[in-house]
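Is this the right way to post structure tokens for a design question? Let me know if I should format differently. Anyway, here goes:
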């Protein structure tokens, strides 16, 4: 009798985890038999690629949960745009990259000419939030830091993910350039310092989310079945009751802003695990901030069911990314090595400064405070103090800044007045963009020698 009871408990636990995730390397209890909840992983279609790099450690620590696999498209080219796809697991698996929708979602992106990266990440039992987010952001930086080695075209790096992998991808997309997340008295580090490529940007150019939890505070809780509590509570480190702020800082709609990259979501109307309102909530928040976004409601779609991954949906995902590539190419300024306008303004109040002439002095040789620009009748600027770049504003109209490298490898955002550690930057041309509440923007360029 005890043996039967143990078997039933074990089966329920496996079933519950399989519903929300992909169960290890052999899938879950999804459509198509034991094919996993990213569609049929081991039968039917298959991913085609010219080269695979397995078990590459992106953190430099030799840990299995920090390994990733790289797949290059069958058509050999000099470089490929990149999609980082993260498996679903209710944040409870740390080694499921081998079953990360390889023969469905990943196969679609490979066929369309994208390099695909499938990472492992720390599970809730390894470390609580934001550890898993730090892992995915480290993967993004790893991709940028290894562009030449693996033929990555880092002009376009996107994230994709199923279920909890979609949740981590949604956070990666909506927290671009943010150092911290804050809600009430709770503050979390959103970036981390994992790996050797911390000088590179962890921002992405687009995101594709499949059946994602987004606001875990409002979603229907997923009971762990293996004991008391929920999968979300294990991920956060504390259950929901009385801990709203700790759950809010792990919810992507909370971070949505006008600077977010394009995001497309696919969610089944019959999803039995993650309620479809989760995608709706993020979509509404993105739309309110005028972010390019699309929400595909899959009629009758279940959580990871094969109906989610029909050719029409895979084609929509690819088309969405291709449009994002075109849109980025249309608005990125031409690369150059010109220095910004600078002037010695040590004794001049920043709110009285006007446009200045270019004197072509390298930024690492000038004395603070230095660089200023007049936009729409109001002044703002940047000054260099030691190894720190300060973003200044002389009028309260300005409220947000973005520092971005012209080649797209570094992006950081913040509120004015802001600071940036110049030692984090590689040599190159950068833009400081200050956005005003009236929709106008001002731009100052500088060169890090």
């Amino acid at each position: 009798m005890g043996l039967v009871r143990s078997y039933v408990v074990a089966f329920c636990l496996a079933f519950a985890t399989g519903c929300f995730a992909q169960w290890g390397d052999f899938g879950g209890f999804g459509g198509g038999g034991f094919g996993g909840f990213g569609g049929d992983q081991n039968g039917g279609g298959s991913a085609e690629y010219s080269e695979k790099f397995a078990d590459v450690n992106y953190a430099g620590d030799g840990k299995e949960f920090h390994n990733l696999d790289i797949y290059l498209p069958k058509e050999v080219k000099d470089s490929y745009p990149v999609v980082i796809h993260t498996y679903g697991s209710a944040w409870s698996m740390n080694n499921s990259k081998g079953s990360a929708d390889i023969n469905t979602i990943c196969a679609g992106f490979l066929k369309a000419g994208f390099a695909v990266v499938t990472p492992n990440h720390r599970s809730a039992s390894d470390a609580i939030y934001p550890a898993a987010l730090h892992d995915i952001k480290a993967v993004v930086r790893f991709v940028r830091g290894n562009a030449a080695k693996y033929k990555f075209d880092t002009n376009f790096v996107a994230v994709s993910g199923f279920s909890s992998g979609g949740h981590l991808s949604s956070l990666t997309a909506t927290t671009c350039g943010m150092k911290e997340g804050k809600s009430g008295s709770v503050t979390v580090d959103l970036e981390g310092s994992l790996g050797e490529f911390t000088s590179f940007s962890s921002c992405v150019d687009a995101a594709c989310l499949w059946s994602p939890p987004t606001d875990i505070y409002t979603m229907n809780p997923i009971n762990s079945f293996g004991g008391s509590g929920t999968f979300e509570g294990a991920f956060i480190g504390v259950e929901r009751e009385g801990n709203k702020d700790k759950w809010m800082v792990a919810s992507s709609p909370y971070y949505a802003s006008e600077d977010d990259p394009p995001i497309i979501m696919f969610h089944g109307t019959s999803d039995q695990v993650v309620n479809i309102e989760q995608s709706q909530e993020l979509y509404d928040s993105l739309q309110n901030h005028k972010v390019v976004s699309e929400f595909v409601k899959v009629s009758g779609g279940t959580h990871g069911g094969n109906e989610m991954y029909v050719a029409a949906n895979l084609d929509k995902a690819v088309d969405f990314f291709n449009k994002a590539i075109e849109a980025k190419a249309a608005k990125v300024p031409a690369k150059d090595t010109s220095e910004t306008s600078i002037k010695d303004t040590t004794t001049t109040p920043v709110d009285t400064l006007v446009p200045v002439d270019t004197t072509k002095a390298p930024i690492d040789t000038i004395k603070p405070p230095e660089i200023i620009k007049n936009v729409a009748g109001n002044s703002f600027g940047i000054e260099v103090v030691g190894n720190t770049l300060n973003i200044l504003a002389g009028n309260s109209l300005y409220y947000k800044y973005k520092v971005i490298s012209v080649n797209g490898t570094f992006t950081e955002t913040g509120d004015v007045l802001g600071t940036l550690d110049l030692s984090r930057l590689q040599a190159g041309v950068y833009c400081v963009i200050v956005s005003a509440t009236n929709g106008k923007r001002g731009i100052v360029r500088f060169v890090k020698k």
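Format looks fine. Someone answered above. Worth noting: Residues 1-44, 333-377 have pLDDT under 50 and may be disordered. The first strand starts at residue 49 and ends at 57.
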